[in-house]
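Hello,

Our lab assistant flagged a job as stuck in the queue for most of the afternoon. It eventually completed. Since we weren't sure the result was trustworthy after the delay, we are filing this so someone can double-check. Below is the sequence as submitted and the structure that was eventually returned. Let us know if re-running is recommended.
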Amino acid sequence: MRLLRLARASIVAVGAISMAVLPSLPARAVTLIEALASAYRNNPTLNAQRAALRATDEGVPQALAGYRPTVGAAADASVGSTNGVGTWSNSIGLEVDQTIYAGGRTANSVKSAETAVLAGREELRSVEQDTLLAAVNAFMNLVEAQAVLNLNRQNVSFLTQQVKAAQDRLNVGEGTRTDVAEANASLAAGQSAYNAAGASLNAAVATYEQVIGHMPTTLGRADGVDSKLPRSLDAGLAAAMARHPSIVKAGYDIDSAEYGVKIAESALLPTASITGTLSHANGSSLLTNPTNSASIMGVVKVPIFTGGASAAAVRQAKENLSAARIANDVARSSVRQAVISAWGQLNAARASILAANAQVAAQQLVLSGMQEEQKVGQATTLDVLNAQQTLLNAQVAQVTAQHDRVVAAYALMAAVGMLSAERLGLKVSRYDPTEHYRQVRDKWGGLRTPDGR
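-- returned structure --
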């Protein structure tokens, strides 16, 4: 199985998952930062959100169109008969409409569209954070799965030796069949655990490819971000309240909802427009000469009664504004909870590493002692097998603690709103959401997108 060969070739040393590449690995292994750069470029969810923001950008030129004239042309032709005499006529006309005043609808529609763009950029920041954090999890889960598989492989090798040793002692009359049976039972359980670890590795590889965008080969170090983290919980909370994309977006959503109320209210105000027309008509009658005409007309409309629809739209917009304000409170509360939780998880992960390291060191001594005692008949085969299983459990816990330590640091960075390609220093071409906005904001026409589609 190729994935199992991958595990054997690129396992990271237990206790160094944070971490240096084993000397046996190829010199060019993918680091966590490089994996994050790949996810930033290739992740489909992130690229879809970028496309969604570009679609939102187009709302601004649509709103600005309310300031501009509309031009239309019409043509008609007819053929008939009058008292047996055939007749025909045709005409062509051009009409230009220019809105002068729309009750403030156009101005507020532009402001609402611009605010939606700003909110969309914050949503993109949020998706970028989620994507990068998912990439961290995918990378570290694969590292963890590789390390656990390696530990189980070493365990199977140890248990195989124990089975052979028990059989040898039985052959020379120094052991029992019970010792051999116990060793074989432990070996079977170890083999089963090894197979399960292989299945977990396969799943981790699939997730890695989905999130990061390429098949993994060998993995290198997991770059730490401790220097980029807030120095205290209060500092983290202050930074999150000021810059977390969910909170900033919620603020823009309130502004957009306020403009929505004004747009709805504009339906109750008068509108003024100017319409100019040019036309040319021909006919078959001898009494009808070709005619040309031109006109300009000003129109003022005052809404008196709209069946209650306009009033309902105003009330609806006000409720949307109320919901946006509540959502802002929810966003602030959620971010606060996330920062506090992430801070606690990071501290717990740091403590778990110290405990796991101590447990592994102690259990290694226990296993060595049991093996020495077994040689002089003071410990049984079962004692050695139990000590080995306890050591394996401690080593897996150590790997998990190292995994959790790295993930918790990045999770705290995301909770504070600081997990970005710029902050991490990723070597990628940064996506600039303002570039597309500048390209389309003042366009008066054209069906092609700025990239030529």
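-- support follow-up --
The delay was a queue issue, not a problem with the job. The result is valid. The chain has one domain: 2-68+103-268+308-440. Residues 127 and 326 are 22 Å apart (CA to CA).
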